[in-house]
Amino acid sequence: MVKILIAEDSDTELEFLKDVLKETGHELTVARDGLEAEQATKTNKFDLIILDVIMPGKNGFQLCRTLKRDPVQQEVPIILLTSKKESGDKYWGMKQGANEYITKPYNPADLLLTIRQHLGGQP
Fold it and tell me: Domains plus CATH for the chain?
């Protein structure tokens, strides 16, 4: 079973994202801030990580950079899912090692396609 970590501090965004992913059958782990997400990666092995950028504790850019420098986590695909739409934000996110940068609001079908691509075609 595919394990996905979602780091999102907004209840509304989290529920929408969980609703989008419920049909996939993937095992979802939720973290409410960057520090909680970082701790989850130390005790679990995830196949994909979805990070909000603006979160308490440690923001998505910081956490992405930390995970991509970790030899154990560096190969795990990271999708930054954020309301930060400026081209400079996207550039900075990709420089931190993100595999994808998707802005909110997003098309659920596009997110599912992106996830599938990073999981080697698994639904």
Answer: 3-118 (3.40.50.2300)
- Whether this prediction's pTM lies above 0.90 is answered by yes
CA atoms within 13 A on the CB side of 26: 24
Copy the structure tokens of residue 27. 């095992």
pLDDT digits (tens, 9 = 90+) for 64-110: 999 999 999 999 999 999 999 898 999 999 999 999 999 999 999 99
Report residue 16 CA to chain centroid gap.
14
Q: In angstroms, what CA-CA distances link 52 with 49, 65, 103, 121, 123?
A: 10, 13, 10, 24, 22
| Cβ atoms of 8 and 55 closer than 8 Å | yes
Type of residue at 102 = I
Residue 81: C-alpha distances to residues 44, 105, 114 (Å): 21, 9, 12
Instruction: Give dist(CA 33, CA 113) in Å, integer.
Output: 25
